Amino acid sequence: MAQETMIELNRISKHYGRKIALSSLSFVINKGEHVAVIGPSGAGKTSMLNILASMLPADDGEILVDGKPLDSYCDRKSRAQKIGMVRQQFDLVPQLAVIHNVLAGRLSDWSLWKSVLSLLIPQDKGRAIEALDRVGLSDKVFERTSSLSGGEQQRVALARLLVQDPEIILADEPVASLDPARAEDILKMLTRIAAEENQTLVASLHSVDYALKYFSRVIALKDGKLFFDRPVSEVSDTLLAELYSLEGNSQK
Amino acid sequence: MRKMNFVTLSMMLFFLLFIGSWYFVIVAENASLSELFTEKNASHAAEFFKGLIGVGEDNNAFLSKTSWKQALGLTRETLQMSMMAIGFSTIVMFLTVIPAARNVADGTLTLSQKWHSWLSYGLIRASYVVSRAIPELVWAMIVIFIFKPGILPGAIALALHNFGILGKLCAEAIEDSDSRPVRNLAAAGASKTQILLYGVLPAVLPQFLTYILYRWEVIMRTTIVVGMVGAGGLGQQFKLNMSFFHYTEVSLLLVCYLILVFIADFISERSRSFVK
Amino acid sequence: MMNFELHKRKILTFILLLAFVWSLLPVDWDKGLLHAGGLAMAGQIFEAALHPDFSPDMIMLALESAWITLAYATAGMSLALVLAFFLGLLASGILAPGNKSRRWLKRIFRGVLSFMRAIHELVWALIFVASFGLTPYAAIFALAIPYGGMLGRIFAEMLEDVPAEPIQALKMTGASAWQCIFYGYLPIVRAGIISYSMYRFECSVRSSAIMSFIGLGGLGYQIQLSLDDLAYSQMWTFLFFLILLVVIIDGWSTLLRRRLGS
Question: What residue stretch is flagged as signal peptide (chain B) (predicted)?
């Protein structure tokens, strides 16, 4: 099976002052893959995702997305079509109605005039409702986002991602502040959507169980370095125990 | 849902008020905006601003030693007026603030309730409302009738307006204070005065200090206004020079005034963060 | 640590007390502070408060003046809001592309805002009247400038306090700077802005009343006229209307703020 390369990291480094967040990290992710990034806190998961999202500049190394350097997606529209992101639930604007938070996924396509008009008369309403329907929130279209529960808010973020429809989804701890049942619900939805839309998914997770259950490949980071990178079937308990052991951290 | 309705209603009311006001200004008062920018007005305004920076004036106040001396003297006077004003309003505030707190009146704070505490609460709160609602300038116009000219009537006028604001703010600070230490003190057998001295005041004094400094800032900015009706300071001279068209004097006084206001801002901000 | 804190407050209190005592020095306390007959005058003035002139003509005049005062305040406030929106947006630095330009933008527009509010509205009014004559716009502009400065500063501070996460998320969806303002910043600060503007609205009514001192109509003008005629009971009629107007708006704004706050 000939696979298309979607993301290629080449010797990426990042440090904050003297603290090293990522040191010479390299790997390749193919189109349509679902990858979980795990590792102890402070291993560099969030830094890596922020660099991929070009929210954070890397100090060294290069990133290719779909064969082109990440910098070439400098205009907001082409970047939004390529890369979308979900994080914890603070990502939404709590004071807006659900539909406007969902339609924010269309902002890269809209003119300023159209987006302001949409706050009064929602534009592309059908698309937003369809997305909300897919995440099971079709009854909350016009509610204030802050009145929704944490799990529901995260589903709104997924609906926004559906409307944005990027080729790559970056998920930074998407279920960190949810209880287990809700967390599984969101992950199930996220992986299902990514599969249906044929999107590439890279998610950082604090829980190994979720990574093994919902993803096909696991990248483990420790102290900013690649600890292992293998399909889920080849991840062993001994490897995991080593990953989370405190030894490596003590030298810092 | 009712909550949103009140907000929407208020917005609509404000919108109506907005339309009505501009309609009134433009149609009923017949004030046309375009008339403002006629050539005559433009030359007039240019003349005025040229005067302010001293173009074509024979005696430029910025170059005159006597003008500077006078302006600096007035600046000091204005500074003293503002301090006197905040001092007076603080004294009146301290005399009235305790009965003006709701939790003192209903006895939750002092744990003793008397029929007259509601009476004094109501009277003091009413005096705060009157004091607050009447602007400094109007107070000054009245006070000038009674006191001899000088900075004292100005300070009294400023104090008359500000004690109400200060009193309201500080009474609310007492209302928001924690009542637990008070209950402990009461349980330990403290008297009413002891409760106030040890339980309430230490907790609210820092807040009072912040409010006093903040009001001083505002008073500083207003001193020039009470002066205009003859209550001394920079304002009085400002008004006089304005009517005699001594425009460089006007701008010299304005500069002094601005420096005062910025210094007051700076000092108040610094001392607030100093005690934080 | 705690002790030091206490001392700092004591030192400051002591300095403030000294300043107050210094401020009392220039007053000539011995020579009599009141005009001859000043006390009698005070008695007359405050006695008149007990029987204000509530004749129908007076009430009509007071109502009309109260409306003028309110109308100028509203018009001035609406202009102030427009000024505050644009200047506050610039002073918050959220439109700046880089860190360095942000610092400069903030510094410059903060300076502009503090200059606007440092000068009292009545001084602005005098300047406007001197430059383009006695028109309602002199009063409206004179109100709009300092109030725009006050509102603009608070607006800028609120915008700076907006949490970074939702804005970053909006940027990730491809939103432009202005789209971030409409979809992120504005909805987040909306309630705060309304509360603060309502609070300032009450103050602007008072300011509008004193605008009349320079000859523009309204309650203050009538108060001044009746004081000139020594007609104290008429003065109190207008004063009571002013108090009523302020109390109504204060009540409205308190209610609204409570609704928005909870």
Answer: none
